[in-house]
Specification:
Layout: E1 2-9, H1 22-28, E2 29-31, H2 34-40, H3 46-56, E3 60-62, E4 66-68, H4 77-93, E5 98-103, H5 115-126, E6 132-136, H6 144-148, E7 152-155, H7 164-179, E8 185-191, H8 208-220, E9 225-229, E10 243-249, H9 252-268, H10 280-287, E11 295-298, H11 314-321, E12 327-333, H12 335-344, E13 349-354, E14 370-380, E15 383-385, E16 395-397, E17 401-405, E18 409-414, H13 424-427, E19 438-441, H14 448-451, E20 457-460
Helix pairs in contact: 3-7, 4-5, 8-9
């Protein structure tokens, strides 16, 4: 059996000023041919699951591309075209028996608002009868074009996404059973006008916990796959918002009923998807009451994992102002500062204007530098392998990396954007996170994978940034209207 396995992933924040060129993909993951097998075989990813299934069945595997970039602005049109053409090339040369695709669901290119739908429709244009199984992120903005151009879809049920292998394994099993004539997949989908906020999508929290419990129950009752998507609100496209997709075994009526029940529950619990914050100075002041750590301080409005610049210094500045002690920060993106610390040398003191290099015109803010002085505590190449539960076994690179120690605060400064979801971001840079009183993390929910088990408390810090949860700071132009909570007249 001839199997195509490909990965093309990007969560696009249309408000982000961070460019998404080919270098950005190569900085995180860009592999072709047999390198895909070497890099993703044995990893906690859908691609890892696909490889295992194909090997177990003795299939001929063709792996034209496995690539992912950290979330950022719209993908450059030439980069998008390059990736799509790379995946299409082997299909154009010779037909396949099946395609197993590891996609995201919220990719937006400069001239293609539905990156995944565009890819799938072009694959089907080359081989119209090709069976296609797709895994998508929990933050997928599902579209009719995606549904129309594949055979079956499943999405992650966890956030942090620790079930990536599991869902890839599940949909691959369904696909191979279908090819063997053991099941007859039928797929239905729908959406509701709810622009849920990412900060309120943690699957350990209400309402998402109950919705994901419901998808699992539906699968135990006989559905082949059931998925509820929170959507990605930082993508200003028509279809952004909550959605659901269900794959049934020959019974479309059953599948439709299940899908509608998921969506109705999501709509009825819509208020739980909206975040309400508080002044930053009060949050940091509250942190002072904790005498033991680690206490997690979440700089969630500047989260790389949703397209943040990672150089907004507002929360760090407030922590410095209130003189919190024994703080470790992950991470600040500032390649120029890393270079200065490399030139100064390990153990030497430096005086640096840190961060604030990126303007954010979409929210009307300019970058603001933060002048700090301290000692260069660590210098590394930024390459390490994830050992925690999310992206387990995947090699990570933050580029040349340094740690600046101000005396009270140790700041991990990186050359490549990175969201701190794994404790390796500290331990591989000479910091033991369990010994810190405070860990300031530029993250929303993914931090839970690596840091929740060691946390004494978690405090959300409402700074500025293009991953803000304040809808009044974002100028939506393309999204469908009316939609909750932007419009009072939104209805299901």
């Amino acid at each position: 059996m001839r199997v195509l396995i490909a990965m093309m992933k990007h969560e696009t924040n249309t408000f982000s000023p961070v460019p998404t060129d080919l270098t950005r993909f190569k900085n995180w993951a860009y592999y072709t041919g047999t390198d895909v097998l070497d890099q993703f075989g044995g990893t906690n990813t859908p691609t890892g699951a696909y490889i295992d299934h194909a090997r177990k069945r003795g299939c001929e595997m063709v792996t034209p591309l496995a690539t992912e970039a950290m979330p950022s602005g719209p993908v450059h049109r030439d980069v998008y075209e390059h990736m799509v053409q790379t995946i299409l090339a082997p299909i154009e040369e010779q037909p396949f028996d099946v395609a197993l695709l590891d996609l995201h669901g919220a990719m937006v290119a400069e001239d293609e608002a539905d990156g995944e739908g565009g890819l799938l429709s072009r694959i089907r244009a080359v081989q119209p009868d090709l069976p296609i199984a797709v895994t998508l992120d929990l933050h997928c903005n599902l579209t009719q074009r995606m549904i129309d151009n594949c055979t079956m879809i499943i999405g992650f049920k966890t956030y942090p996404h620790v079930d990536m292998y599991e869902v890839g394994d599940q949909i691959a099993q369904v696909m191979f059973r279908a090819l063997e004539g053991k099941v007859s997949p039928v797929m239905v989908w729908g959406n509701r006008p709810v622009l849920a906020q990412t900060l309120c999508m943690g699957t350990a929290d209400v309402p998402m916990s109950g919705l994901q419990d419901m998808t699992r129950k539906l699968e135990r009752e006989g559905l082949l796959a059931a998925t509820f998507f929170g959507g990605f609100p930082m993508a200003d496209i028509h279809d952004a918002g909550i959605s659901a997709v269900v794959v049934g075994d020959g019974d479309e009526v059953q599948a439709r009923s299940a899908c509608d029940r998921l969506l109705d529950r999501g709509w009825s619990e819509r208020a739980g998807f909206i975040y309400s914050g508080r002044p930053l100075d009060l949050a940091i002041s509250d942190a002072r009451q904790y005498t033991e750590g680690p206490v997690l301080l979440l700089d969630h409005a500047d989260n790389v994992g949703s397209g943040g610049t990672a150089d907004v210094m507002e929360v760090i500045r407030e922590v410095h102002k209130q003189e919190l002690e024994n703080v470790a920060v992950a991470v600040v993106w500032d390649p120029a500062a890393v270079k200065m610390m490399q030139e100064a040398g390990l153990g030497n003191r430096v005086s640096i204007d840190l961060g604030g290099k990126t303007d954010m015109p979409s929210i009307g803010r300019s970058g603001e530098l933060f002048h700090v002085e301290g000692r260069v505590a660590s210098l590394t190449d930024g390459i390490w392998t994830v050992e925690g539960p999310m992206y387990t076994g995947v090699e990570v690179s933050t580029g040349p990396t340094a740690v600046l120690d101000t005396g009270r605060i140790r700041i991990v400064v990186v050359s490549f954007h990175h969201e701190p979801w794994d404790s390796g971001i500290f331990s591989n840079n000479g910091i033991n996170p369990t010994e810190c009183r405070y860990l300031l993390l530029k993250s929303r929910i993914h931090y839970r994978a690596g840091f929740q088990p060691i946390a004494r408390a978690t405090i959300r810090c409402d700074g500025h940034g293009v991953t803000t949860s304040r809808n009044d700071q974002l100028d939506y132009q393309a999204i469908r209207r009316p939609i909750y909570p932007l419009d009072d007249d939104a209805t299901a």
